[in-house]
UniProtKB/TrEMBL annotation:
SUPFAM superfamilies reported in the protein's UniProt record: DinB/YfiT-like putative metalloenzymes
Protein name listed in UniProt: TIGR03086 family metal-binding protein
Organism: Microtetraspora glauca
Source organism superkingdom: Bacteria
Database matches in Pfam families: MDMPI_N
Domain Mycothiol-dependent maleylpyruvate isomerase metal-binding positions: 12-135
Listed InterPro entries: CHP03086, DinB/YfiT-like, Maleyloyr_isom, MDMPI_metal-binding
Amino acid sequence: MTENMTSWAVLNEAHEALRTTVRAVAEEDWTRPTPCSEWNATQVLQHAAGDQIGFAGFITGGPMPSEDPFAPSGTLAAAPQTVAEEAMKASADAWSTIAEDTEDVPVPVPPGTMSASLGVGACALDAAVHAWDIAVATGQPSPLTPKLARELMAVAEQIVPPLRAYGAYAAALEAQDGDDDVAALLRYLGRDPGWTAR
């Protein structure tokens, strides 16, 4: 894990999850359905990349996504790995400028500013959960580790409730006996941990 490293371990791990997942997708699998029922794997990647660029743009004042991340076209401007890497590099570079004790970091999600640790967690949550979406859509194992899931759950519990009003996350699913940390996070985000393409 050497590409686009930052001092933020949670972001590094989330980016690695997305990177590893994207690299393993076969060309013919980019049109497969995903847990995001309206989007295929390409559209989820566009959304995930757009969100990373959005976080970077809010921090640096630099470029914002070229299209609406919530209305992905399904047509990539470059190869999938290139799209993912460019977005993650922008995000990692931006977060590398933020000190850990920064209290107000501009972010593209309500309420518009967050502490550094919460904001970078929000950015990591987005990358990691969409890595999972693409992974399960294309027959890969979950890229989420229990440790990462625990860290991201602490973030999700703080930021997701207001985002549900904007349609960014579905309603939480009921917890099930035997859920591990990964399953608990996915259910909280409205995802079925056992989802498979039908």
